[in-house]
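Subject: design request, 265 residues
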């Protein structure tokens, strides 16, 4: 894994610019759809209220998302950092090996890669009380080029909540990406500032999304995270939590956009 990260870092230094491609989604219907059809699946309750969602920061770029109906989704599921519970849905990105799995648990019901060899990935899945869809983005290649639509941002819709996981985002968001994402209540975003988008660029992304809860991920030690928080401290308040889990609902969202830091493994 260290060799892969080294090659990736060298490629990122060599890439001077990256052009964003127009975003596409399978349904053409961005944003939360509380009226979405519910699939009739045998599900078990997750001890959550009907409008609540539980987020667990597993580590790196992996979160476990749990719905009131007991559906579990894991983001950037990989072979190094995994939740203890087997998810029903696993999303992946191919930026490098800590964002995808070569051997996903066969018990996972739906594995959703954020790329497609024949073009842009297209996912729009409703499983129980969870809808998952993707918005393709570009990534840098190891040679310093551009892999158009090589990764995806994933949107998770539970009741009236929209959660966006930005994945291994390498470039600013264009209006087409913002339209495809729709309203975002909670955003999970990388802050390393080198392997992904630089920190100033990530601040601009957050300003454009205007999510009420912003949870950082993909940082390598406290120094990287603190550098980002020092840049953002005049823009938004910061709450540091002691637990890696947080339960949120539409009603419990902070009145103003807030960065919430969760400890990961």
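Subject: RE: design request

Done. Sequence follows.
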């Amino acid at each position: 894994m260290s060799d892969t990260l080294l090659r990736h870092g060298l490629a990122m230094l060599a890439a001077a610019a990256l052009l964003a491609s127009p975003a596409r989604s399978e349904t053409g219907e961005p944003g939360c759809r509380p009226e979405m059809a519910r699939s009739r699946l045998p599900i078990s309750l997750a001890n959550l209220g009907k409008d609540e969602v539980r987020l667990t920061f597993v580590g790196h770029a992996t979160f476990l998302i749990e719905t009131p109906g007991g559906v579990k989704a894991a983001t950037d599921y990989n072979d190094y950092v995994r939740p203890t519970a087997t998810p029903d849905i696993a999303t992946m990105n191919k930026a490098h090996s800590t964002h995808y799995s070569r051997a996903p648990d066969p018990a996972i019901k739906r594995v959703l890669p954020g790329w497609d060899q024949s073009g842009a990935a297209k996912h729009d899945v409703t499983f129980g009380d969870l809808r998952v869809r993707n918005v393709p983005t570009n990534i840098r290649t190891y040679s310093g080029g551009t892999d158009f639509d090589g990764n995806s941002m994933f949107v998770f819709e539970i009741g009236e909540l929209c959660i966006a996981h930005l994945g291994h985002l390498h470039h600013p968001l264009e209006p087409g990406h913002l339209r495809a994402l729709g309203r975002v209540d909670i955003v999970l975003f990388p802050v390393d500032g080198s392997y992904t988008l630089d920190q100033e660029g990530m601040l601009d992304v957050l300003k454009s999304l205007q999510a009420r809860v912003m949870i950082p991920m993909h940082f390598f030690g406290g120094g990287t995270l603190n550098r980002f928080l020092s840049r953002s401290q005049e823009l938004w308040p910061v709450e540091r939590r002691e637990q890696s889990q947080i339960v949120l609902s539409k009603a419990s969202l902070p009145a103003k956009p807030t960065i919430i830091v969760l400890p990961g493994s």
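The mean pLDDT is 85.
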